[in-house]
Amino acid sequence: MTQPATRAQQEAPTPAAKSAGERDSSRRPWLRWDVRTLSLLGVLAVLVAVGGITAPDEFLATSNLQLVLTQASVIGVVTVGMTFVITSGGIDLSVGAMVALASVWATTVATQEFGFAGILFTAVIVGVGCGLVNGLLIAYGRMVPFIATLAMLASARGLALQITDGSTQVVSVKSVLDLGSRDSYVLGVPPLVLIFAAVTVIGWLLLNRTTFGRRTVAVGGNAEAARLAGIDVRRQRLYLYLLSGLCCGIAAFMLIVLAGSGQNTNGNLYELDAIAAAIIGGTLLSGGRGTIVGSVLGVLVFTTITNIFALNNLETAVQQIAKGAIIVAAVLVQRRSPHGDS
Amino acid sequence: MARTPNTSRRALLFGTAAVSAGALLTACTSNETKDQEPAAENAPVADDKPGKQVTIGFAGPQADHGWLNAINDNAKSRAKKYSDVTLEITEGSNDTAQQIGQIQTLINKKVDVLVILPADGKALTQVGLQAMRAGIPVVNLDRVFASPQAYRCWIGGDNYGMGLNAGHYIGEQLKDKKNAKVVELAGLDNLELTQQRTKGFDDALKNYPNIKKVARQAADFTVESGQAKMAQLLQAQSKFDALWNHDDDQGVGALRAIDQAGRDDFLMVGGAGAKSAMDAIKAGDSVLKATVLYPPTMAASAIDLARALGQGKGVGGLAEFEIPSSLTLYSAVVTKDNVDQYLPTGFI
User: Fold this and answer.
1) pTM of the full predicted structure?
2) pLDDT of B210-234, one tens digit each?
3) Which of A107, A168, A193, A313 to mutate to test binding with chain B, by most B CBs within 10 Å of its CB?
4) ipTM of the assembly?
5) Closest CA–CA distance from residue A167 to any residue of chain B (Å)
């Protein structure tokens, strides 16, 4: 990881590199089927084959595919937000805590009285609010993202614990619960998966087809060069953490639908899962390169592994070891690819 | 800040439970015979009458879970009941070093008795020894220290018994069924208590050769993990007859997954004794038919024991001059038949 990162940093300072980046994005194909993405698709294909062989009756059943996609949805939405932050050279360690806080705040009895809209609105607002604090601290308070979001992790989890007093807040709003039931599937697709798909498409368009996306990449490639090129780096950073908070708010709502409750332990270790998915997807941890498609594939790889292991009744310990091995393998494959340091 | 009315409801609930338990205790003691009695009958026994002032230090893990939260509430409300008890309570922590520091602070404050629920029993053994050497008796709550020298008295639940009783209940329900299949949704696998619960369950099932455990997945004691792991289990096992879930908190998620999958072809037994689980058992409209208790009231009992220790008294109903060195609670099976009796102890 260090090698390509350093090289990217060395290349970026020259204005030529930046303008090349701008030019590049204007004629970028719809999808970059580079070796990185293809290798990830290969991993996924192997996993599907393994699943189909080891649990032929269960794995390829429609209900199981629906399950895998549903389980990928919540963490998937968080990962899309995380991809933007990492692309800009930052990191957001507070995503899990923001999901927890948004979910418990949205499921207090007071909020539940306002029904579906109340829960959705509260979850999103709390997520955006936390993201705003992160953004202000990092962009205008000049705090290192690692530290600012670490502080948010601690305080949001603390606040979530205080709001719930450690207890589980069960949701009684029927319209929210119904969104997770089989009856609400659209042509066999669960609504949560549709939300995930929508967030993915919007995220992809935002990163690859807008000025906002180009600025994100530029800030991550070299913040100083971006500033000299006339980009308001600080405002851009503020927006990026806001975006991550927004994704966490949406994810919190989705988790409420899925689990039917708010609990301060919600979103546990999401930060690590989201970072891992983005990294194996091909987003550069040091910034300057990000891929939404890769991140989503990364999430799907992890969810599929978990699914296959559960279908074959393997232990948690084995699952964790395999997860670690996959991360290492994916990164090694990417480094060997010709585009490994592009 | 938005806040649920849970706290007040819970306080009310435990207040009522504590008062009724107190009333029961008084009723028992007032029935003592006045006849000629052996020496042991004269043993001083802790009762509700105010005695010597006792300062009890309480150190527990972070209450980030319904059951642990109920532990704290039980300890606090029971201590409030006694005018002769002062409770010094530390901020809960799952960090071993931090909890050691907190207990050392309580030792330095020279509290009379310590009640410790260690986040990790083995890791906190040394500080238990330290307290005992400093002349402060320790009541070890639930997660047991590695050395008996580190505590004067241990009180806790029976994890093995939970599994055993859950297994026996399921066994009795399915004993006439050929080739019955059961599934286990375990708790956090890196806690020793999870292994004990599983061992008890497996041992009980050995009595029923017609039953086979076909799958076991571990969750994290959280609603989210319960939902996720249960959804997987349901996918993996298209047909089974019974499910044992180690924990009612993750059971909220498990029930949600069962509901989402539209399954109702098996019976489910929970663990710990959450109010939501007992409500569901009482309503009888879900797969949840029973829960095996792991009562958080043990914290209230720990305060009773600590007070008796501080006052140098024994326990009412027992002949001994001192409190016992170890007390294991019974993991009763709560079903629709007896749920009303246990409902007041259900934690939120």
Assistant:
1) 0.83
2) 999 999 999 999 999 999 999 999 9
3) A168
4) 0.83
5) 5
